[in-house]
Specification:
heterotrimer; A mainly alpha (605); B mainly alpha (103); C mainly alpha (456); A: mainly alpha; 3 domains; 2 strands; B: 103 residues; mainly alpha; Helix Hairpins; 3 helices
């Protein structure tokens, strides 16, 4: 199957060529992306005619690396290729002023290749490789403008967050491979019992990191420090989607208990990050929070046991959210800022861009006949039909309401205000990319029945869901347009502004108890010996580091962990005193300890 | 276990202890090497005693002793080579003065 | 006898090469010594190929010709050839350059003896042979740092070596022979088994730089020439680890040795990466990283005797470790020893930058590079042997390791270009080594199946 290979190889080769030739970056990038797009469309049409493509490569002993094009993976691959192609077109205009197009386009293409590998991977090892690679690429892309202040730390933060969650994927893959004796994903999906529960929860952790679910949602908003096409591609349609895709692909394996946890995590995320979006003062960060919120909705659908609804929303959301980001990027170029106060009235300057942005916003809110309506309707119907309807449906409706509210708020800000016309370089390319994406966002709904037949499964249908969803969306839109956000959020506002990161909450839950423990330890320490002292100090250090770091909670904890590690490293380093005597004495004492422990165990048995 | 073997083993262990103490407490490279010699001497006494009292039919014990003697000789030679190189570079073979590399 | 000698052709070839190279050096013909050394090493590796698949021994069971020992030749001999190329680039033209090649090959011979040891006396000889050459190599520049490093190295080596010999004397008392294959006689005398085992771990652990026997390693690597440090972090270390595998293979399981090795493994990886996290010199950082990697090797040692994966994973990880570590040190030769020298180096020389990123990611165990395949099999072996907790600790340490290695990557790409002067040196021989190491780092993952084929 050379088709599968060319989907991945075309962008990869283009990236390498760009790096080597160091010129004609734009042409090579577009060429690579279009070849990949053609190949993935061919894959999809094969899938429609019932052909499953498969490519085996030599890998670990007894576990070949495997690329497969099932209907699901071919569909996702086409989605990635289309969005990537359009974003690339847009990026040609957006990056016109930048002086390092080679690095930008090469990394972006490398990312596309990695994402295609992730989507098409048929075994866990390849999936892990792609997962790592997209993490690395996103680190490089968020930090693309590394000379600007704050960008480096945003990139590192994104990396740390997702990296710590990636542990979940590694452990889950090990469990599944050990259980099934094969690294083939399809085979491991037959796992059941305790292993399935454990692996499912671990996969959820990994997905929470990549898809920015509460409480690991903070990195996504900070990731907006990168160039706008990066935000549009990575942080709405692809990288973030990896988490949801992982769960959609493994749903058949997940037992009911795990599904419930998935649904609840998604539900909490959709509400929490929806509120954050409502309180946000920066357009790109608002869109980022909304991304988390929409992925929360997808997790709700997975939790309701209808991965198809999640998939449809993923597809619709990919087109919609990238259009929103691209529109935001045009406004950003016009006003040199993404702060909402600076963007007031930016929409009036460019009515056509605003129209596109508004269409996408309405689609996201779920207004018929735009694509978002169908997918959101499917999610609500899915929750209504699931055994845990009482728990999940309110989450889904609240998410829909909030979506309407924050999108209406963004539209209002963009429309009301003064006009100040300024020329933008490369507007033609940007508009072309945007137009393509908005067309998709508007019309994709018509393709959903075809997808249903392709994947050979049906969605639950319910008039009640349509009524509820539509009224929630309209109510949200009306609220967001008419009532200013501060009043809407009321006492929640300061919390939401700090990203729920969760100043008061985490302070009360983690930091203060840590202090209390530390104080207690200090009291005990006077009587007891040094081991307790160390624990106390560690607790104190974590507490203080968490308090000192500018925003708190998990974030502070992760950084405190890093700092604690460096601290430990420094301590380890002092052992290496350079005085060979002291070092050798340590060796001898350690040997004596080892020997006596061994002797003790062999004597007392 | 015969009493002779026990005495020999205790002597070997004592030599080992003295040697370790010497190697750890002395700061001069040459003195440390003396400590190492004592440890090896302890090992040789052990081997000879084991051979003589437990396994007189297997010559491996004697061979091992010969090998240890070779080890001692070669190690001494190389040790003095290192000591001379150090003395030429620094004018001293004190370990306490060799603390530039650390951390 | 003749049949036995036929099994030893690689070692004999190496020995003859050493003699010829020494003669060339005595005639002051360093170029000829280099040529003789390289061709001899390649010939010896070629001669090891027909031995694949054998499982026998020579000289009455004292010298083993089995999977471990033959693969040790196939990995260590080419690795020595690469190190000789590095040494030529760094020390070429210096006084008595040919002795470096001779000493390198002598240390390799010692490491091969270690990896094939079937007898305690050969363990002693192997440690001695691979140790003596190393002191001289470290001291080669004869300056302050080098002699200090050599002195510390020597003191540490002689004390640990003596302790090992002393402990081994009890094994002779317990079994009546010096053969490793007779260690099973110690089934009923746990005391003697434990004393001897701890002694062996001291002696081989120093060579493999396991915690707490590692103290010499960072100092010696820093004081020595970079090419010598690269060599020492690979060849003698792998030799010692394989020797440990040969010893524990025959040790009765009752004496709890797997648990002991597992604990040392945890100590070694954690300590190594923690200390590496705060180093400011790349050579020292890589020294601590190689200490930590030694801890990963122990995952397979734990499983020796219980899991068939143990041997496989040891061999694959040895090969992967050899190429990626040599590659990383070769890049250090091009760029510089200090972390500051790496500032923006990746942007100044794209090819070397990419190579270094690949080596470091492979060391961290990112799929699909060689390091991942090796570590994956190591984890599998440990879990197979019932040490799931150890595998989990190792995975956690891998996360820490990524922080360690990314420190270099970040400096290479993120930091502003402060010093315009220090452009990476481009040395043809070093570049050759980097290319070879790069190809294998990428290829071992895919070649794992082919590599495992002949072993069955």
């Amino acid at each position: 199957m050379s088709l599968i290979a060319s989907v991945i190889l075309a962008p990869l080769v283009a990236a390498v060529l760009i790096l080597l030739l160091r010129r004609a970056a734009v042409a090579l990038a577009l060429l690579g992306a279009s070849i990949a797009l053609l190949a993935s469309i061919a894959l999809l049409s094969d899938a429609f005619s019932g052909v499953t493509g498969e490519l085996l490569l030599p890998g670990l002993p007894g576990m070949p690396l495997r690329l497969i094009a099932t209907p699901l993976t071919a569909l996702l691959s086409t989605l990635v290729a289309i969005i990537a192609g359009l974003v690339l077109v847009y990026a040609v205009g957006y990056m016109r002023q930048d002086d390092e197009p080679v690095r930008f386009f090469a990394t972006l293409l490398l990312f596309i290749a990695a994402m295609q590998t992730l989507v098409l991977a048929g075994d866990w090892v390849l999936l892990l490789a792609a997962w790592e690679l997209i993490g690395l690429c996103s680190y490089l892309l968020i930090g693309f403008w590394y000379r600007r202040s704050g960008v480096g730390s945003a990139a590192s933060r994104a990396f740390l967050y997702t990296r710590s969650a990636d542990l979940g994927l590694y452990l889950a893959a090990f469990i599944l491979i050990a259980e099934a004796g094969s690294s083939d994903i399809a085979t491991t999906l037959n796992t059941g019992g305790g292993a399935a529960i454990a692996a499912g929860l671990l996969l959820l952790v990994a997905a929470m990191g990549k898809s920015a679910q509460t409480p690991l949602h903070d990195w996504l908003q900070r990731a907006m420090a990168g160039p706008t096409p990066v935000s549009a591609l990575l942080h709405s349609a692809t990288l973030v989607a990896a988490g949801a895709i992982l769960l959609i692909r493994t749903t058949p394996m997940l037992p009911a208990e795990t599904l419930l946890v998935v649904g609840v995590v998604g539900g909490i995320t959709t509400v929490v990050t929806g509120l954050i979006a409502l309180g946000e003062r920066d357009l790109k960060r608002l869109l980022a929070a909304s991304t988390s919120s929409q992925y929360g909705l997808m997790l709700v659908a997975v939790g309701a046991g209808v991965p198809l609804a999640a998939l449809l929303h993923l597809i619709a959301h990919a087109a919609i959210k990238s259009s929103l980001f691209l529109g935001a990027g045009v406004f950003q170029h016009g006003r040199e800022s993404t702060a909402l106060t600076k963007l007031q009235g930016a929409g009036r300057e460019r009515p056509r861009i605003f129209l596109a942005f508004a269409l996408a916003a309405l689609a996201l809110a779920g207004i018929p006949p735009l694509s978002g309506f169908f997918s959101k309707d499917a999610i609500i119907a899915a929750t209504l039909a699931s055994p845990t309807a009482l728990l999940l449906t309110p989450f889904a409706l609240a998410g829909t309401l909030l979506t309407g509210a924050y999108m209406a708020r963004a539209l209002r800000v963009l429309w009301h205000g003064d006009r100040q016309q300024r020329p933008i370089a490369g507007l033609g390319w940007m508009a072309a990319g945007l137009a393509g994406l908005v067309t998709l966002a508007v019309t994709l709904g018509a393709a959903f029945p075809a997808i249903e037949t392709l994947l050979d499964s049906t969605l639950p249908v319910s008039t009640l869901a349509q009524v509820l969803g539509l009224s929630a969306a309209l109510a949200g839109l009306a609220l967001g347009w008419l009532v200013p956000a501060p009043r809407l959020l009321g006492p929640l506002l300061p919390w939401a502004r700090q990203g729920f990161a969760i100043a008061g909450g985490f302070d009360a839950w983690i930091v203060r108890p840590a202090f209390a423990i530390a104080r207690g330890c200090e009291r005990v320490e006077r009587g007891l010996y040094a081991a307790v002292l160390a624990v106390g100090r560690l607790g104190l250090a974590i507490g203080q580091a968490a308090r000192r770091s500018d925003d708190r909670g998990i974030d502070g904890l992760i950084f405190a962990l890093v700092r604690g590690m460096v601290d430990l490293g420094n301590r380890a380093r002092t052992l290496q005193s350079g005085l060979i005597h002291r070092e050798m004495a340590i060796t001898v004492v350690a040997t004596a300890v080892i020997l006596s422990v061994l002797l003790a165990t062999s004597l007392f048995r | 276990m015969s009493i002779e073997l026990l005495i020999a083993l205790i002597t070997g262990a004592a030599l080992f202890g003295t040697g370790i103490y010497g190697a750890l407490s002395q700061t001069n490279l040459v003195m440390i090497m003396m400590g190492v010699e004592l440890i090896l001497a302890g090992a040789m006494i052990n081997l000879v005693a084991f051979w003589r009292y437990l396994h007189p039919d297997n010559p491996a014990g004697q061979m091992f002793v010969l090998i240890i003697m070779t080890v001692m000789a070669i190690e001494m030679a190389v040790g003095f080579g290192v000591a001379i190189a150090r003395f030429r570079a620094r004018g001293s073979v004190e370990m306490e003065e060799a603390t530039e590399l650390k951390g | 006898m003749a049949a036995e000698l036929a099994l030893l052709t690689p070692e004999i070839t190496l020995l003859l090469t050493i003699v010829f190279a020494l003669v060339a050096e005595m005639l002051r013909l360093p170029r000829i010594a280099l040529g003789v050394a390289l061709s001899g090493l390649l010939l010896a590796s070629g001669l090891s190929l027909p031995l694949l698949g054998l499982d026998s021994s020579v000289f009455g069971g004292t010298y083993r010709i089995d999977g471990l020992s033959v693969w040790a030749k196939l990995i260590l001999l080419p690795a020595t050839a690469l190190s000789i190329l590095l040494a030529r680039a760094e020390l070429g033209g210096s006084d008595r350059e040919g002795t470096v090649y001779v000493l390198l090959m002598l240390v390799t011979l010692g490491s091969l003896v270690l990896a094939s040891a079937g007898d305690t006396m050969l363990l002693v000889l192997g440690v001695l042979l691979s140790g003596l050459g190393s002191f001289a190599l470290v001291a080669y520049p004869r300056d302050d740092a080098a002699t200090e490093a050599a002195m510390k190295f020597f003191v540490f080596a002689s004390v640990t070596g003596a302790v090992m010999i002393f402990g081994l004397s009890y094994w002779f008392g317990g079994t009546g022979t010096t053969l490793l294959s007779d260690l099973s006689r110690l089934e009923d005398s746990r005391l003697i088994a434990s004393v001897g085992l701890v002694a062996v771990i001291v002696g081989l652990g120093y060579k493999a730089s396991l915690v707490p026997f590692h103290f010499w390693a960072p100092d010696a690597y820093q004081g020595a020439p970079v090419s010598i440090a690269a060599y020492m972090s690979v060849v003698p270390k792998i030799g010692a680890i394989l020797a440990l595998a040969q010893v524990v293979r025959d040790l009765p399981l009752g004496s709890d040795w797997p648990l002991l090795v597992a604990v040392i493994s945890v100590l070694t990886m954690t300590y190594g990466y923690l200390a590496a996290l705060v180093q400011g010199k790349v050579v020292r950082l890589l020294a601590y990283s190689s200490i930590a990697q030694a801890g990963y090797f122990l995952l397979a040692i734990v499983a020796v005797g219980t899991s068939p994966l143990a041997t496989t994973s040891l061999i694959i990880f040895s090969a992967a470790y050899a190429v990626m570590n040599l590659g990383a040190f070769a890049v250090v030769m091009c760029i510089g020893r200090s972390l500051d020298d790496f500032a923006a180096a990746g942007r100044r020389n794209v090819a070397i930058g990419i190579a270094m990123v690949v080596f470091l990611l492979s060391l961290a165990g990112i799929p699909p590079l060689a390091g991942f395949v090796g570590k994956f099999l190591l984890f599998g072996a440990a879990m197979d042997a019932g040490f799931t907790w150890l595998a989990i600790v190792a995975i956690l340490n891998s996360v820490l390791s990524l922080a360690v290695y990314l420190r270099i990557v970040v400096v290479m790409y993120r930091q502003a270009d402060t010093q315009a002067a220090a452009a990476p040196v481009s040395l043809p021989l070093v570049n050759l080594v980097i290319v070879v190491a790069f190809a294998f780092t990428l290829g071992i993952g895919l070649a794992a199946q082919a590599l495992l084929g002949p072993m069955g």
